[in-house]
Design brief:
The structure is a single chain. This protein has one domain. It is 58% helix and 6% strand. It is built from 4 helices and 2 strands, in the order βααβαα.
């Protein structure tokens, strides 16, 4: 499978409690390396030969 994984640490929890937007949380999480996006996971799995480009593209809806 292809997954999007967010590490829910103290910083992310604080942003949630402060009611930051999903876009803001995503931006910060990606910048801090705490979010691996669907596109990143799909690309990694294609490069490793785990899945095909076609399957990855359909999962990510590119």
């Amino acid at each position: 499978g292809i997954f999007e994984v967010l590490v829910n640490d103290e910083m992310i929890q604080e942003m949630i409690l402060k009611r930051k937007s999903a876009q803001e949380i995503t931006r910060v999480a990606v910048a801090e390396g705490k979010l691996r996006t669907l596109k990143e996971d799909a690309a990694s799995k294609v490069l490793k030969g785990i899945t095909t480009l076609e399957e990855a593209a359909s999962a990510v809806m590119v």
